[in-house]
Specification:
Helix content is 33%, strand content 22%. It is α+β, with helices and mostly antiparallel strands. It has one domain: Thiolase/Chalcone synthase (Peroxisomal Thiolase, Chain A, domain 1), CATH 3.40.47.10.
Length: 372
């Protein structure tokens, strides 16, 4: 069997403490899951598994909670994964493997994140010590280098001689593309929180002048060319080709995906290895890709990954990227897949690539295909 995505939906992506503030993970995920199933007429009792990526929720099994909130039967256990930023795409890779192995025919899979409601984390060196809050866990063991992401990105900029003006130009284009695509993007968005809002609120007319005034974070890295922390959820329904044929469902094929580890101190360029390996495995040239969704945690990261892999820049993030939306960590990879699905379904056929980096030196790439 092969795996196909037959529906894909998401919430708006809203800045932390913005339009989606106060909503729990299940509040965000449940309406999207229900909309995905309703879109293709799949009943909740036909679902075999729910796989959810989440990075900031504090543990437990968010997938189980989201599944039950969406009305999925008790028999579906739910499977949660945490691979930080790449988790949303990795969840899709896992779902494909389960379907290819014949373990499931219908899987709801994606990611959800609420920066606004994430729990406060405390840690202490031993039981008798005072616990102190911390922002993130270590991504590598001591004494390996585990730089702050902003510092790591600034180092990569210096290594590859990336200029702030080029990063700002990339960010300006991302916002412009998102604004131009606002009406078209409504087809993939489910209104939640009772707002009725069907567009990502952060996208705005960004200019050189605004970018020049943006506060600096580290070197050429500024708040204008860095994605902001955000809330949101994105899900797809993945089915076996056997199920799709039996029920007359059309969709896109999940062709191949791969996650690789790279140098922990250079997480921004980890997707380069993943992209190269995926394209080599499928014997695809970069120019054969009709649509490309590249994660924009930083403009520099997206630019560099595209340039080092020879991707056609005019096909990258044609409807805007995370710089114009925000970065809901565990959901970001799934957002890329939702975007790719809708662009491929609206086209006469083609191949699309989604790629994303994560802290600790991880990179994931995936190819989806819709035959003409």
């Amino acid at each position: 069997m092969t795996a196909q995505i037959v529906s894909a939906q998401r919430t708006i992506i809203a800045p932390k403490n913005g339009a989606l503030a106060g909503m729990s993970l299940s509040d965000l995920a449940a309406p999207v899951i229900r909309a995905c199933l309703a879109q293709v007429g799949i009943a909740v009792d036909q679902v075999d598994e729910v796989i959810v990526s989440n990075a900031l929720g504090g543990g437990g099994n968010p997938a189980r909670v989201c599944a039950l909130a969406a009305g999925i039967p008790n028999r579906v256990a739910g499977l949660s994964i945490d691979r930080q930023c790449v988790g949303g795409l990795d969840a899709l890779i896992l779902a494909k493997a389960m379907i290819d192995a014949g373990q499931a025919h219908v899987i709801v899979v994606g990611g959800v994140e609420s920066y606004s409601t994430r729990p406060i984390r405390l840690a202490s060196p031993h039981a008798a010590a005072v616990a102190h809050p911390y922002d993130r866990p270590a991504f590598v063991p001591a004494p390996m280098s585990d730089p702050d992401m902003d510092q790591a990105m600034a180092h990569v900029c210096a290594t590859y001689d990336l200029q702030q003006c080029d990063m700002d130009e990339w960010a300006i284009r991302s916002h412009a593309n998102a604004i131009a695509a606002r009406d078209r993007l409504q087809r993939e968005i489910v209104a939640v929180a009772g707002t009725g809002v069907l567009h990502d609120p952060y996208a705005r007319p960004l200019t050189d002048r605004v970018c020049a005034r943006a506060p600096k974070i580290d070197g050429p890295i500024t708040y204008a060319n860095t994605a902001i922390a955000a809330d949101g959820a994105a899900f797809v329904v993945m089915v076996s080709s056997q199920f799709a044929k039996k029920h007359g469902l059309a969709g896109v094929d999940v062709v191949f995906g791969k996650t690789v580890g790279a140098a922990p101190q250079e997480p921004a360029i980890a997707p380069v290895c993943a992209i190269r390996q995926v394209l080599e495995h499928l014997d695809l040239a970069p120019q054969s890709l009709t649509h490309i969704e590249m994660m924009e945690a930083y403009a520099a990261q997206a630019m560099l990954c595209a340039q080092l892999t020879g991707l056609p820049l005019d096909r990258v993030n044609q409807s805007g990227g995370a710089l114009a939306r925000g970065h809901p960590i565990g959901a970001s990879g799934a957002v890329l897949a939702v975007r790719l699905f809708h662009d491929l379904m609206a086209s006469a056929g083609g191949r699309g690539l989604a790629a994303i980096a994560a802290a600790g030196g991880l990179g994931t790439a995936m190819v989806l295909q819709r035959l003409a």
